Amino acid sequence: MDRKRKKFILGSVLLLVSLITTGIISACTSLTPVNLPPTQVRNFTLYVRDNFITMPDGKKIYVFGFTNDPNGKAQVPGPKLEVNEGDTVNLNLVDDKDPTNTPFNNGGDGHTIHLHGLDLPSQFDGDPMTQPGGEVKQGQHYAYHFVAKSPGTYWYHCHQEAAEHIQMGMYGAFIVHPRGELSKAYQDTPLYDKEYTFVLSDMDSEAHQTDYNHLFNNGPDTNWTSYHPNYFLINGKVWPDTMIDPNDSINATVGQKVLVRLINTGYVIHTLHSHGFHFQVIGTDGRKLDQPYYKDSLTIGSAERYEILFDLNQVGRYMFHDHVEQNTTNDGAYPGGMITMINVNKPDGTNPIPMPKVKPKD
Question: For the whole model, what pTM was predicted?
Answer without folding.
Answer: 0.90
